[in-house]
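User: Please fill in residues for this 261-position structure.
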């Protein structure tokens, strides 16, 4: 067993870990910055009519419509524009930093765990590994759901909605990327609901019976949360965001039930 460290030794180790994290994020951000075409090819893919989500919806629509005639989804035409002289460069830098942080996040989590693990018992380390792994996987699943389903459908609905044919839709690139990042981050955090419920269940704070009893209250709360994190006030986007949260809550009830009984 290693010798106990003093406060200053802990502080020095924390400083060293923070420096490594910053370097890792910076290196990943620089690498991402150099691959501009690939980066924005992925980010701007939902803006194209040929995005995989739209193609799948097209196939489903044709499958369940007689003869497949008149069922084709109308081609999406939303023009992205830039309104600032240095805006595109600054967006390139900001986006590279975000993506660099995501790419470096496994190493960051490893450094954080290595820093706190000496203070944990062996069984606590095992639970911590399960908790961190599960939380990270759920966060990535939330971001993937946002990228492949929630954001594309939201963008297609709002980007093509017109009050009149004479009004052309144009969306700033800044608004597009900020909305994508915000929804992705929000859904990543929302997908932590099962992890949070697992922790509270292990601590005895909640149980499955309690969660079932307050289900209606939670649904109302989830609708309020969905209204807060959605960038618009339309019902379509609200339901699109709130539905996964409700399903995650139902899944959390199952998890807590297995823990407690």
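Assistant: Residues filled in for all 261 positions:
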């Amino acid at each position: 067993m290693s010798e106990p460290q003093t406060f200053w030794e802990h502080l020095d180790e924390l400083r060293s870990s923070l420096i490594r994290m910053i370097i890792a994020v910076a290196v990943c951000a620089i690498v991402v910055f150099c691959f501009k075409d690939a980066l924005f090819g992925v980010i701007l893919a939902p803006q194209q009519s040929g995005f995989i989500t739209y193609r799948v919806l097209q196939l489903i629509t044709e499958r369940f419509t007689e003869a497949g005639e008149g069922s084709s989804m109308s081609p999406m035409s939303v023009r992205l524009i830039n309104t600032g002289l240095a805006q595109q460069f600054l967006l390139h830098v900001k986006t590279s930093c975000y993506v660099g942080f995501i790419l470096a996040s496994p190493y960051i989590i490893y450094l954080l765990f290595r820093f706190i693990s000496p203070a944990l018992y062996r069984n606590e380390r095992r639970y911590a590994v399960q908790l961190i792994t599960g939380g990270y996987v759920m966060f990535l699943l939330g971001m993937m759901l946002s990228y492949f389903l929630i954001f594309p459908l939201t963008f297609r609905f709002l980007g093509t909605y017109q009050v009149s044919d004479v009004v052309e839709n144009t969306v700033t690139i800044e608004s597009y990327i900020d909305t994508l990042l915000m929804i992705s981050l929000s859904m990543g955090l929302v997908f932590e609901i099962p992890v949070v419920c697992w922790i509270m269940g292990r601590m005895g704070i909640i149980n499955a019976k309690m969660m079932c009893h307050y289900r209606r209250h939670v649904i109302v709360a989830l609708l309020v949360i969905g209204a807060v994190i959605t960038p618009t006030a339309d019902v379509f986007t609200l339901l699109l965001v709130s539905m996964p949260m409700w399903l995650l809550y139902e899944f959390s009830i199952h998890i807590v039930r297995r823990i407690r009984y």
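For context: Residues 122-160 form the longest helix (39 residues).
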